[in-house]
Amino acid sequence: MRVLVTGATGYIGGRLVPRLLDRGHTVRVVVRDPRKLEGRDWADKVEIRRGDLSDASSLSGVADDVDVAYYLVHSMYAGADFAERDREAARNFVQVCRGGPMVVYLGGILPESEDPASEHLSSRAEVGEILREGLPTTELRAGPIIGSGSASFEMVRYLTERLPAMVAPRWIQNEVQPIAVRDILAYLVAAAERAEPLGVLEVGTEVLTFRSMMIGYAEVRGLKRLIIPVPVLTPGLSARWVGLVTPIPNAIAVPLVEGVVQPVVGDVARARELFPEIVPISYRRAVELALERIETGQVSTRWSGALGDGSTFEFEDREGIMREVRTRRVELPPEAVYRTFTSLGGARGWLVWRWAWEFRGLVDQLFGGPGIRRGRRHPTDLSVGETVDFWRVEALEPGRLLRLRAEMRVPGKAWLQWEAEPENGGTRLIQTALFAPSGLPGTLYWYSLVPAHTLIFSQMIDAVARLAVEAHEGGE
């Protein structure tokens, strides 16, 4: 079967593609920036097309000769006009696929109450309607997806791990219907392999309250937790609280919280009847598997892995960009130095002034930024587009270069870059901090930090060089 996958750099899409390949299907992916696929072990096994669903002219021919097309995109990061962006993207997709493939779409379970669903759930439902009206479509509707690196799991995990006792909003007693990531992937594959569209199918495992999900996580981890529901926390305030305590930024926390402030329980009987071979595992087992993956470093995708709707800035040497360049000679091959600077962040941290990095992350979270708690997917492996704390990998040249783009709140655009250049049998390690200020506030911001940068970045490059030598001598 010939399959088109949109959203291949996202949490679900990045896990779906290898499963389709394992089943012998021919896969084409459409992405805005093919660099985001660098480092994926399946990238050389698929056909890669550049295209943007918000730009119909970029999609010409992407669905030609395709049997099934997956629609796995949404505009959660897009800001106030996300619903219109979702609408436009879906209509463009219908146009490019008209008369061609069957579509499989992943949406969300809607509440049964008379109160309207959240804006994000409503938008995802509207996308499903647009697809079903224009194309033969199977729409799978799921509740919170539980798996290593998923946003819902990370929210439960960090809230439960970090707060021994919490006063929580009353809606945590609402019922929801989670599903393990392995099961939603199984449904996605099975739906594509059916010969006909199935309309709307709701899928999930046992029904739980959100409070039960946190208590269940605590039991798996052997933790004692006290959770007291109160009626005074609004969804907006709750989302900001989640954004402060967990790695989930407000842009993601708001739709996650809004998605559970009403009971969201589906009727899974039809899905169980159509796909009896799929028996969803329990929530508890999904948590156990997610924790095993995290502990062994086998997290293949994370909620923060996609670049979102922000532009990818091309790097150029020009006026208006402030630079701090430091170099050190290291008596090692470039590959050994490269392995060291690509392992920074996450649990390892940034080697020097840990409290300063953590304080900067806390300030960023208070102002709605991602903070430093996003960590990294894997302790040593990186791919373009992935997050590392409050940075995102913008460029990666194996054995030579890593460039990170800052996503913390700053008055301008900032990068941190390392290069490992061969030099007379050793390596010239080059560390460059760059900043493109936005007007006078940006310029003042940069110069106010020069003393701190002088201290921190000088010690950082020395620490990178030292760690590279220690790791090399230790046989890492």
Report the radius of gyration as a whole number of Å: 23 Å
Output the strand order for the largest sheet: 3-2-1-4-5-6-11
Q: Give the count of helical stretches.
A: 13
Number of DSSP-assigned strands: 19
Q: Which strand-content bin applies to the residues?
A: 15-25%
Q: Which geometry do the CA atoms define?
A: globular
The end-to-end distance, rounded to whole angstroms, is: 43 Å
Give the helix/strand layout.
Blueprint: E1 2-6, H1 13-22, E2 26-31, E3 47-50, E4 68-71, H2 82-97, E5 102-108, H3 119-134, E6 137-142, E7 145-146, H4 151-162, E8 165-169, E9 175-176, E10 179-180, H5 181-192, E11 199-202, E12 208-209, H6 210-221, E13 226-230, H7 235-245, H8 250-258, H9 269-274, H10 283-295, E14 322-330, H11 334-341, H12 354-366, E15 387-388, E16 391-397, E17 401-406, E18 412-423, E19 426-437, H13 439-473
Parallel strand pairs: 1-2, 1-4, 2-3, 4-5, 5-6, 6-11, 7-10, 8-13
Antiparallel strand pairs: 9-12, 14-19, 15-16, 16-17, 17-18, 18-19
